Amino acid sequence: MSKPTSRKGLSLKWLELFQVCARNGSLRKTARETGLSISTVSHHLRSLEDHLGVELFNHSRRPMVLTPKGHVFLRNIDVALHAIRKATAEASAGDLAEARYLRLGTIEDLDSDVTPELAVYLSQKMPDCDFLYHTASSHEIIEMLRDRELDLGISTTPPERLRDLQDQPLLRDPFVVVLPATVEPPVPEIIAGTSKLPFLQFSSDLIIAGQIEAQLRRMGVALPHKFECASNQTLMAMVAAGAGWTITTPLLFSRAKRFQPMLRMHPFPGKRFSRTLSLIATPDCSRSVRDIVNRKIRGSLEQQVIQPFVDSTPWLKDQFTLID
């Protein structure tokens, strides 16, 4: 690699594309994520290397891997780009109307009512902003936030530390037992596994499944894994058909309106436990954007989900609540 002829004109675009490509290890993935052509991405990366006079990638390897100098360069620009993004967010924090781009990820638990209402509200408050809405599992949303593929996310708070992400707890969503409407055995017997009704559970790779498994383990209960599913709607359909019982939450139960006449929700016996939904942001996300999303989400949860449920199920009053 030849020596650089000039230190002038280092492009921020080069640095941003280098950061994305270093994370992806692929020109194709980088092009798809940034909306550029593969040849354009390659040209920018070559321009950066020519400018610096060093090879940042081993171009003979697939997937692309960083050279030792590339690793050092990435470590330094990660800090610099974070500072630039944070400064940009703070500079525009006071004027939502000038916001240009927002990438928001939400769990599907909010898809029925809360997320559509939020989308309409934000489009009115931020008329010149381009929005990207992404629905995924909590694990996926948190990883996308860590990789800076999203600016904001609404997800179940994970058990591990969020490192550099900033979380604002929103909702306490208690765990409940859901049985077929035709089944009336004591719930403690169901939980203990002494009834013939099988336990239908969430897929083990989901955060919610880990929380339920940990609670059952604390109780000394080991239930056979007869059926696992990532979809709450499918679980509710199976329970409604009398195929078994499950542990879920009021928020998830509220989405299963079609099956609710065939279901009965019961308090979890013994010590209560719950999951927390949080608004999670990258450090460079504008505080004013975080605040407006936080206020709108809280209002929607209270009016559309919590209050109707508490009215019809009074025993949830002190459990299913917003977190101040």
TrEMBL record:
Record carries keyword Transcription regulation: yes
Domain HTH lysR-type: 10-67
Keywords assigned: DNA-binding, Transcription, Transcription regulation
Signal peptide stretch: none
InterPro entries registered for this protein in UniProt: LysR_HTH_N, LysR_subst-bd, WH-like_DNA-bd_sf, WH_DNA-bd_sf
Stretches assigned to coiled coil: none
Family recorded in the similarity comment: Belongs to the LysR transcriptional regulatory family.
UniProt-recorded name of the protein: DNA-binding transcriptional regulator, LysR family
Phylogenetic placement of the source organism: Bacteria, Pseudomonadati, Pseudomonadota, Alphaproteobacteria, Rhodobacterales
